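Archive record
______________

***
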Amino acid sequence: MTKKKLVTRGSLLLVVVVIIVGAKIVFSQLNRPAVATFTPVPGGKNQYSYQIDLTPKRKTGKYISFDYPAGLNVYPSQVTGPELEVFNFSAQDVETWFLGIEVSTTRFGKLTDSSSYTYRKNTPTVYHETQETLNGQLVTIMTDTTVGGFSKVAFILHGNTLATISLQGDDSSGVAPLQTTFSMILMSWHWL
């Protein structure tokens, strides 16, 4: 094959690749959700009202069961590595609520087996640790003190199994609906 034909084929291949990449970028931009903002009227009541249905709904897996608000959308999740079960939920309010629940195995049955816990424990300027006993089980809660809104992660050990419950977001009514959600999950938590 001649050098001229190779250059022509190479140029043609480059043009095709550029067109495909460009089409993917344009297509991904067109499929992004629209972003809207609003400015509240000073002294006035916001005409926009968000209401996430906080009615408890039961979720049962292979290892756990718990209640969560019916207003949260459930998203399929894949299990990888030491994970046994993963549940992901979200809802839209002032900003998106993200609820992630993971059940995984630990090496020695200690919280320090979890890199998620250890990172938070080793960053006390950001995370505040508290412990509560709920339904007879010890729950360690890490609260991110640097964010506006709500950001908490709970850790519950059960033998060599660890549940990590993470909830973050903000709500037009303040953080009370998020705290209600977090409490609902922890108070209804049951190992199977």
Q: What stands out?
A: Confidence is low (pLDDT under 50) at residues 26-49. The first strand starts at residue 56 and ends at 60. The first helix runs from residue 3 to 30. The chain has one domain: 56-191.
